[in-house]
């Protein structure tokens, strides 16, 4: 008998910062009805261009435990090419003195995830998410975590790379790289996989 065990990924944090990123240009699976496909396309038109959408985040900032910022699905749907970068900047800035370290640790794990997606040809993931988490409490290490979550729409890849997922993952990586690099250069210009600045 096999079981799936749920894990509380936030248990290790005193002041967790957690972001959920819905991945892929297309979030409906191959068996979706026409109505479902239309519904998903209308829900967030920018998804086709970005390859992901922010479903929200929750973060602590400052020293007071009441310093809490919560962004929900509606906020995520209001992110577009002009302001999605600011959303990442805001989220990754929970540890003001260690922003570069949080970005670097996030990238290390995103690179591993990309390497896996570039090599695996068994599964295609639809409506799956990446969960980003780190510790905002400065008395503790950042303990950055990047996890793939939500597997209810996984289909056989039939030997093909999951380009739908990789497109969005490459854009997320690009945004975090530019954020990290902005500490040295002072500029923050993003070029997405689609070639849009």
UniProtKB/TrEMBL annotation:
GO terms for biological process: inositol phosphate biosynthetic process. Pfam families: IPK. Belongs to the inositol phosphokinase (IPK) family. PANTHER family: INOSITOL POLYPHOSPHATE KINASE, INOSITOL POLYPHOSPHATE MULTIKINASE. GO terms for cellular component: cytoplasm; nucleus. The keyword Nucleotide-binding applies. The keyword tRNA-binding does not apply. Its EC number is 2.7.-.-. GO terms for molecular function: ATP binding; inositol-1,3,4,6-tetrakisphosphate 5-kinase activity; inositol-1,4,5-trisphosphate 3-kinase activity. Keywords: ATP-binding, Kinase, Nucleotide-binding, Transferase. InterPro entries: IPK, IPK_sf. It catalyses: 1D-myo-inositol 1,3,4,6-tetrakisphosphate + ATP = 1D-myo-inositol 1,3,4,5,6-pentakisphosphate + ADP + H(+); 1D-myo-inositol 1,4,5-trisphosphate + 2 ATP = 1D-myo-inositol 1,3,4,5,6-pentakisphosphate + 2 ADP + 2 H(+). This is Kinase.
């Amino acid at each position: 008998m096999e079981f799936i065990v749920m894990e509380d990924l936030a248990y290790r944090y005193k002041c967790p910062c957690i972001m959920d990123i819905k991945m892929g240009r297309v979030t409906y699976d191959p068996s979706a009805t026409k109505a479902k496909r239309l519904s998903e396309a209308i829900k967030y038109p920018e998804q086709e261009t970005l390859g992901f959408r922010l479903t929200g985040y929750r973060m602590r900032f400052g020293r007071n435990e009441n310093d809490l910022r919560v962004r929900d699905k509606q906020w995520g749907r209001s992110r577009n090419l002009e302001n999605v970068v600011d959303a990442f900047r805001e989220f990754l800035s929970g540890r003001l003195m260690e922003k570069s370290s949080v970005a670097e640790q996030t990238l290390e794990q995103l690179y591993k995830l990309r390497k896996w997606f570039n090599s695996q040809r068994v599964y295609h993931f639809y409506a799956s998410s990446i969960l980003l988490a780190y510790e905002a409490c400065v008395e503790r290490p950042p303990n950055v975590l990047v996890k793939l979550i939500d597997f209810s729409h996984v289909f056989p890849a039939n030997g093909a790379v999951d380009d739908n997922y990789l497109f969005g993952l490459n854009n997320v990586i690009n945004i975090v790289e530019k954020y990290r690099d902005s500490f040295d250069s002072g500029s923050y210009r993003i070029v997405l996989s689609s070639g849009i600045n």
